Structures are given as C-alpha cells and as structure tokens.
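2024-03-11 09:14:02 INFO receiving multi-entity request
2024-03-11 09:14:02 INFO entity count = two
2024-03-11 09:14:03 INFO echoing inputs for audit
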Amino acid sequence: MTLQGESAEHQWVDDHAGPVVRPYAVTGGRARPVTGTFDLISLVTATRKDVSPEIGLGPEHLAIVGLCQRMQSVAEIAAHLDLPVGTVRVLLGDLMARSLVQIREPQSTVGIPDHSIFEAVINGLRAL
Amino acid sequence: MDYGHSERPSGAAALPTAIKILVAGGFGVGKTTMVGAVSETRPLRTEEVLTESGVGIDDLSGVEAKQTTTVAMDFGRITISDDLVLYLFGTPGQDRFWFVWDELSLGAIGAVVLADTRRLADCFPSIDYFEERGTPFLVAVNCFEGARQYRLDEVQAALNLDPEVPVLLCDARSRSSAKEVLITLVEHAMKIRDARHRVD
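2024-03-11 09:21:47 INFO inference complete, emitting structure
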C-alpha cells in the first residue's frame, strides 16, 4: 500500500465518499424485519434503561435502545442514526423480538382518526 | 420530554399516538422551509434505500433497474400534547418515487400542496395524486418575492380545483403563516371526515 497515515483515511470518510458501510451490512444482509411492519411514524420506546451487549445485538441495536429512552418515531430513529429506514426496521424487529422496545402503531393504521383527534390537533396548533 | 407510561393510572388510552400531514409540491417550492418553520426542531432527513425489488417494476431494460436508489424525505415534529404527536413530511419531488408517496400518504390526515405561481404546473402531479387517493388537501400559494401576485380565484381556476378545496396565500418561511395553513387543512380534513362518517 502506498497510501499512508491520516490523509489516506480521510480520503474515505469525507462527505463525498458516500456511505462507508453498505446499508444492509449492519443487518447481516437482511432486508426485512423478523417481526412487525413499522410505519414511519410508529412510536418506539425502550423498555429498559440500557442493554448490555449480547450475541445478536450490534452497536446500532444498542444505539436505538439509547435513543428510545425518549419516545421516537421510526423516521426519527433513522434520521438520528443516519441509517436508511429499511435498515432501522430490521433492527427494530430484532429488538421487538427480544421485548427490548415497545411499539405504538399510528392512529391511522387503526382506522379513520376520531373527530376528537382533529379537534385536539387544531387546538394544539393554535396554541403553538 | 419524558413519557412515563407506568405512572399513568388510566393505562392504554393514555399512550401517545402519532399522526402525519404531508407537504407536497414541485422542486424548490419551499416544502422543507415550511416543515422547518413550524417544527419544534430543525427538519430531519430520513432516507429509504430502494433496491431492485422496489424500483421500476415495469422497467425490464436491464442493469439500470438493479441499481439502488436513495429517496430522501425531510420531516419535522410538533408535539401537540403528551398523547398526540404530529409529524410533517415533505414528499420527495420526483415522479418516479410515487410508491414512496403511497407509503407516506397511507393514513395521512391531509396534505398541503405548495404552489409557486411562476411554475404552477409543478404542483399538478401532487393535486392529481391526492384527488385520486381521496386524501384531503389544500393549495397554499407560497408568495415568493418578485413573483406576480395572483388572486386566489385565479389560482383556483388555473388549477381546475373542486370549489371546496381551500386555496390560500402563505409565506413558507413564517411560523404563523405555516401554522395557519396547517389549521385550515386540519379543519378541512375534519369536515371531510365528518361528512364521510355520516354517509357510512
């Protein structure tokens, strides 16, 4: 290798290099979650304060548990971890299979939102 | 903010739920600007990586279809109450990402179609899409400096809209203006929802 030192590393990690890790590398090549569908606005909450590393859980899994100490949507998790949504869905499936996260499906998948929800949104927006 | 589920006496009913509103329109019309103007944080960006199975099912020409494509969506969050979180999603502009729109619009309570009077035709695909799907929407004309001001009825006529579709002027950079647009949309969506509910 003729490349050496810092300059060689930086060639690969600057913004123009694009993703350094392929999107499905962190899922072990899996494109679909083992369980769950995970709408973009499904709300995720961690069920435990922290999780110690164990077999089958990677740093991204642990990062999600950390992030979801405060309720987050699937879209927010993807944005904060800078991972594609599809990848996050797979990781969430793993966590759900271990009961490490709790998912709240959005209102809309249950049916047409109630009249009261519309009113709450209008009042909430007025109060902003 | 912390949501202490276990401290709530009433149980399941108090768990928060999320709803979404879409912000659509042509490229550069101010979708992300509007999302940012009313959201509680700067707009976030999420990406869907689409592989062969997702892209161009009608494209059999070969290698192109095997590439992965990244579709970026900007979105923001407004916490309405402890029980209700509203997400605003800017829709990806390119027509070839319609299937991402399908996922986005599934269960959306309504959509804002942002329009620029200098390039009015750019919002036609969005309008067609929401009309087709029956998603409640309104048209908000973003008032760009230097653009000729049109009367709202002129815009309504130019877009050939159902007279019930609200059309209003807005400044996508302004929080109060964006707020007003969203309130008008939710009121409109509520009216449609109530009317449909009565028929059912």
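2024-03-11 09:21:48 INFO post-check: The domain at 23-108 of chain A is CATH 1.10.10.10 (Arc Repressor Mutant, subunit A).
2024-03-11 09:21:48 INFO post-check: Residues 85-97 of chain A form the longest helix (13 residues).
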